[in-house]
């Protein structure tokens, strides 16, 4: 038996998203891809930024899709607001 959540860093060696093939029976899988430089809208401006590709997969026979959607939105909010990072580290970047 494995755990209920798998985290895999499939894109750490490249500047692309990366992808994974799930062959285990965990309930939730988080695939962390690479960081790519892409244009995006920030506020009302089009800016070039670094974006992290992150994929969340869930077994819908075990976990309700609404719960996963709320979990994913909360995770995005935490990442975008640098939750848990030292303020000195954020200011120096």
Shape: globular
| Element pattern in H and E | EEEHH
Please list the strands of the largest sheet in the order they lie side by side: 1-2-3
What is the arithmetic mean of pLDDT?
Answer: 78
- Give the helix/strand class: alpha+beta
Strand content: 35-45%
Major sheet details: 3 strands, mixed
Low-confidence stretches: none
Please give the share of residues in helix: 10-25%
Number of strands: 3
Give the distance, in angstroms, between the N- and C-terminal Cα atoms.
41 Å
Taking all Cα atoms into account, the compactness measure Rg is: 16 Å
Count of separate DSSP helical elements: 2
Summarize the structure.
The chain has helices at residues 65-80, 87-92, and strands at residues 5-9, 28-42, 45-58.
Structure description:
The chain has 93 residues and is of the alpha+beta class. Helix content is 24%, strand content 37%. The protein has two helices and three strands; from the N terminus they run βββαα. It has a three-stranded mixed β-sheet. It is globular. The model has no long low-confidence stretch (mean pLDDT 78).
């Amino acid at each position: 038996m494995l755990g209920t959540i798998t985290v895999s860093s499939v894109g750490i060696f490249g500047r692309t998203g990366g992808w994974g093939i799930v062959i285990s029976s965990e309930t939730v899988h988080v695939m962390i891809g690479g960081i790519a430089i892409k244009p995006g809208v920030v506020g009302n401006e089009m800016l070039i930024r670094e974006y992290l590709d992150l994929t969340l997969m869930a077994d819908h026979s075990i976990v309700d899709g609404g719960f996963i959607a709320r979990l994913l939105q909360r995770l995005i909010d935490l990442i975008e607001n640098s939750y848990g990072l030292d303020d000195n580290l954020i200011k120096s970047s």
